[in-house]
Amino acid sequence: MSTVTLHGIKIPLSPDEVSPVIWQAIVSGRYEAKEAKWVFKAVKSGDRVLELGSGIGVITSLMATVVDVQIWAFEANPSTADLARRVIDLNTTGNVSLSQGILTAGAPADHRFYVRKDLWMSSMDKDQGPYEREISLASANIDDFIAEHKINVLVMDIEGAERDLLQKADLNGVERIFLELHDHLYGLAGIRDMTQALAAKGYAYDPRGSYGPCVLFSKDEAIREYEDDDAETAIA
């Protein structure tokens, strides 16, 4: 097993535990590079963060470095959750709770989840592409979880499922939502649906914490600085 350092996070991982595409993205530093930079615009000291779609736990571990942050992370793919647990255990100090499962809007139900070779393509969308196997996952209600744990920040990368979730969930108590958009799955119509739904809940697109498909929606009126031009150029 190798230990690769990515965005300052140690990843104990063998090349045969992920697809060649994922491994190359990790060793080249491209894996979740934009998310790794911009998530710090969303997460602040003292936040209580719910993360949906932790992947292998890199962004989870980065968020956990913020002072006095508590994180509850969910990953649907069982094998990916095992990798994430390994990464989180190595890099964090007890402020992360990781669960293998899903949260959805509405009553708990059983859902089909499609596991694909490239872990970032695994999703609840059967038509997203060829899959290796199909599993059943029992969901829990996201609004109940938010209320129980007093969540104020939502971070998500859930391969298209954000469209349904952001339209149907109440999200009471959540001040900031940081997510990766997947417009290749739902087009501009899907982005419009989510933007309108979030606006109706009191959120605005926040350019101070957004870059390309990594976007921040916020109710937070506190003054925060924009990135300077040099920083923008460096990550373009």
Automatic annotation (TrEMBL):
Q: What is this protein called?
A: FkbM family methyltransferase
Query: Which Pfam families does the record cross-reference, listed alphabetically?
Result: Methyltransf_21 (PF05050)
Q: Which GO terms describe its biological process?
A: methylation
Q: Which domain of life is it from?
A: Bacteria
> Which residue ranges does the record assign to the Methyltransferase FkbM domain?
72-204
Record SUPFAM superfamilies: S-adenosyl-L-methionine-dependent methyltransferases
Keywords of the record: Methyltransferase, Transferase
Gene Ontology MF terms:
methyltransferase activity
Q: Which Gene3D superfamilies does its entry note?
A: Vaccinia Virus protein VP39
InterPro entries, per this entry? FkbM_mtfrase, SAM-dependent_MTases_sf
